[in-house]
Design goal:
Length: 169
């Protein structure tokens, strides 16, 4: 099994929840890229977007990824936009196994509407605006997400299935 497992996918696809369970199963350390950026910056993601802007956030995402690529036995939950800039998908594919957790725009909308996590990109959107936003952005992002080594359906997905997928490969 690769020493780094990157979980990728849209906001709300379950990367962090599945990632921490997967890490426990395969005895790897779990890292949430967003949390690591927040810890390093001593700011929350909304504060980073407000105070520094998205461009700076994307640069920090890239820096953190390069650091993680020097560490071993990690399951990494990436931010939804991380694979889509600065050759991040290529970097992840070169340094470990990438798994795209795929959900439909409708399923993502239902999860995000009920989520307590504050996400700057979708803040203040109505349900119909959110669905339109997800549909448009997902179409652009899937160009990158589809480069993952594994693509798995995210509905009812269990960490056990991911562990099996990795162990069988
Ligand atoms: C983002 C997703 C968020 C976080 C930031 C930007 C995105 O992470 O990195 O708000 O561009 O899709 P999650 O995918 O964990 O929500």
């Amino acid at each position: 099994m690769d020493t780094r497992i990157f979980l990728i996918g849209f906001m709300g696809s379950g990367k962090s929840t599945l990632g921490s369970k997967l890490a426990r199963r395969i005895a790897y350390q779990f890292v949430d890229m967003d949390h690591l950026i927040e810890e390093t910056a001593e700011l929350s993601i909304p504060e980073i977007f407000n105070e520094h802007g998205e461009e700076v956030f994307r640069k920090w995402e890239h820096d953190i990824l390069l650091e993680l690529c020097c560490r071993e036995k990690l399951v990494i939950a990436t931010g939804g936009g991380a694979p889509c800039h600065s050759q991040m998908m290529d970097i992840m594919n070169a340094h470990g196994s990438t798994i795209y957790i795929q959900l439909s725009p409708e399923a993502l909308k239902n999860r995000l509407i009920n989520s307590k996590t504050e996400r700057p990109l979708i803040k203040g959107k109505s349900e119909s605006e959110l669905l339109a936003f997800i549909t448009g952005l997902l179409e652009k992002r899937e160009v990158f997400y589809d480069q993952a080594k594994y693509i798995v359906k995210g509905i009812d997905l269990q960490a056990q299935e991911l562990a099996r997928l990795l162990q069988d490969s």
